[in-house]
Structure prediction request, 65 residues.
Amino acid sequence: MPKGHPSVSKEIKDQIIKRIKEEVLPVSQVASEHGLKPRTIYQWIARGVTAPPSILEISKLKREN
Prediction:
C-alpha cells in the first residue's frame, strides 16, 4: 500500500474553499467533514489555490465571536 497523503484535486479544493467562504463556515468544521486537517485548508489558502485572503479574515472573526 502506498504511503503518503491522498491527493485532493483542484476542483475539490475549489469547492471546499468556496463553501467556507459562501456559507461562512469554520475551516475546522469543513476540514473535519472532508477528513482533512484544518492546517491543510489554510495552506491551500496561503498558497493561493483558489480563494482570496478574505477567507482567513472571516474565519478569524468568526472564531473571535
Summary: The radius of gyration is 12 Å. The mean pLDDT is 81.
